[in-house]
Specification:
Number of helices: 6
Oligomer: single chain
Shape: globular
InterPro entries: DUF6928 (IPR053847)
Distance between the termini: 38 Å
Number of strands: 9
Order of helices and strands: EHHEEEHEEEEHHHE
């Protein structure tokens, strides 16, 4: 497993449905979105990216405003505790559902959160082997149940003397969250109706604090 991402999805429609429709990016609205989120920064356009590259370094943001969905890939979504996301990102949801998804394969880290349209946290969960469970807010969603109960396939793969701190692999849960919430995976089984992530254009920006 080698996937990494840190991204926000602002959704007024089903995320997977929007991505499968492959709509055109609204560049003017996207530039305005990034300007609202980074008001204290100098913002400079850089080369486009796509949704198959969702882990930009600090100082770069990739975003797209699409019908029913806005996507923001930013290092600011990569924090250990998702509910500590800067409030300006939550305010931007403005009546939409906000999803945060972040994973880092090098340290087996995974975090996700869902804010309801009124801005309250429905679910937030994050963990890594070094830190344990960092945040656990709200009721687990159905896709989590297999893992939290103990993933048999993962447990059977462990050696007898392996002292892995969880009964599942965080990145397996991360991929299950991608499938359940957004309708795609970065690694794992590809389904015939999966969106083409490389074709989902994200406008790139360098953001530098003033």
């Amino acid at each position: 497993m080698g996937a990494k991402d840190w991204m926000l999805m602002y959704a007024s429609d089903d995320v997977g449905k929007v991505l499968r429709a492959a709509p055109e990016i609204d560049r003017e609205a996207t530039a305005a979105l990034v300007a609202r989120l980074y008001p204290a920064h100098e913002i400079r356009p850089i080369a486009d990216g796509s949704l198959d590259y969702a882990n930009p370094p600090e100082g770069e943001v990739y975003a797209a405003v699409l019908p029913g969905l806005s996507i923001v890939c930013t290092w600011d979504a990569a924090g250990d505790a998702p509910t500590e996301l800067d409030p300006r990102f939550v305010r931007e949801a403005a009546g939409r559902t906000l999803y945060l998804h972040a994973m880092h394969s090098v340290v087996d880290f995974f975090a996700y959160a869902i804010w309801t349209p009124d801005g309250s946290v429905r679910r937030a969960f994050s963990l890594s082997p070094d830190s344990g469970v960092i945040e656990d807010v709200g009721t687990p969603l159905p896709f989590e149940e297999k893992y939290l109960a103990g993933d048999r396939e993962f447990l059977e793969s462990l050696d007898e003397d392996d002292e892995y701190p969880f009964r599942f692999h965080p990145l397996d849960l991360a991929e299950a969250a991608l499938r359940a919430l957004f309708g795609f995976n970065y690694e794992g089984l590809y389904q015939d109706d999966d969106p083409d992530l490389a074709a989902t254009v994200l406008a790139g920006y360098a953001v530098t604090p003033r």
